[in-house]
Amino acid sequence: MSEILVKNGYVYDPKNGVNGDVMDIAVRDDKIVDVVSPTAKVIDASGKVVMAGGIDIHAHVAGPKVNVGRNMRPEDKLFNTSKRTKMTRSGGGFSVPSVFETGYVYSRMGYTQVNEAAMPPLLARHTHEEMADTPLIDQSAYTLLGNNWLVMEYIKRGEQDKLNAFVAWMLKATKGYCIKLVNPGGSEAWGWGMNCVNVSDPVPYFDVMPSEIISGLAAANETLNLPTSIHVHPNNLGHPGNFQTTLDTIKLLEGVLPRDGKKRDQVINFAHMQFHSYGGNTWKDFETEAQTIADSINKNKNMTVDVGFVTLDETTTMTADGPMEYYLHNTNHLKWANADIELETAAGVVPYIYSPKISVCGIQWAIGLELALLIDDPMQAFITTDHPNAGPFRRYPRIISWLMSNQARLDRLETLHKVVPDRVAIGGISRVLDFYDIAKMTRAGPARALGLGNMKGHLGVGADADVAIFDYNPKTMDPTIDPAGIEKAFTNTAYTIKGGEIVVIDGEVVSKGHKRTIWVDATDGVVDPVILHDIDKKFLRYYSVTMNNYPVQDEYVANGLIVKPEAA
Predict the structure, then answer these.
(1) What was the pLDDT predicted at 568?
(2) CATH number for the domain running over 59-452
């Protein structure tokens, strides 16, 4: 039995209504408990901020396109390398770090779970291999289904029951956690040299529209009672005027109900909403529409967003939105890699520099902050950078400093292109967030949205013993005038406890820890021999592999934690 007592910290735990109270957190083995024995190891957290372990709801950290990014950008390692120590492997990479560096940096920032946001089913085995190699942090992967041929066939024929069963089978076969849609229908259209710019554009050959794909998979998600909603990267990412497509997508989901007829906390999580909140008609009159999108989210309490903050860094963009990456390549003329996964999805990788001297980049920076500050409830807006698309995840501490300090935002605004202040609203937004809000955006909110709110994202009895302790005294220090202090504290924790084990002390990794891969099995009572026969026929007809060679075997999954719909 292992016991730890974290004493006298300023605790921020929104799920349990704890807002900066000085209290103790007791840990026994891998769970939070009421009390521990007098022999427990004591950590004095006096004058420090204590939160649950952080959860990154959307990042690209494992899988084939991440490896493409690593291979095509050796220069990325010039920005960051780390030497081997007695406890850690060497690593490198700023925007596309190695798997070892990924686990270490997240742990130093107090994060204990990260979710790979786009797993191509055919290459799920490779994704799980990389996740298994990533140390210290729990992980899950989102299964890409928004451009799958079989999905679109079932939708075209109106075979919702077969669609439901196929989704359940795919999640189990890929050891995925949720349904992910990227540019629904548009990535398949890209194989025909086309795209789906709005929710009504037809997908070539399949004769379905993105609106039907989104609604069909949302209905499958709710019928299967999956622990989290569909996660959607809407059509028309990154183009001026795309806020209207975003509003059209929101309307599709406003009436979605689960099978019991009662609204859940969440029916959709919008990915990287910053990239979908653009006004104007061209890049010359490009402007923010964050207020419009925020107003819509404020009216729909069962919708959440991860923001996708632009950090104004050199980075590497990568997405299953193949046509978007080709468009970006034609914009900046830098290196471009493209891939098409048979029957399932596309992908592209392009380096990008978010220069403060470029007006568009400055406006994008402002839009992300505006969304976070204009959405009323921080439980609906989560801190992400769509790593590495809008910037590397290692910049989360800087984003937190901007959210907590209006002066920090204004200082940065002054360094941007001269037209930016007139095209954005950030200069007139005085709201600042506090530690309680930050805990909602990085802990309680993502945990609830993922359906893991009982075991993660909080410090109540029975929760996973994931704890982050930051060397920042909220009573004697002021984030509004000390953004640098906030960034420093959130970059390297005083302590990170993962699964009841101390893994980081003063920013140094001190343990190899242990990690889990979390996935969903919703096949009970849904997948039967009839549907398996139907899926098998489609594999024989279309795929280059057989159905028996397709699923991910258990040995590829690191300490798999299976979530059943009933337990969500």
Answers:
(1) 45
(2) 3.20.20
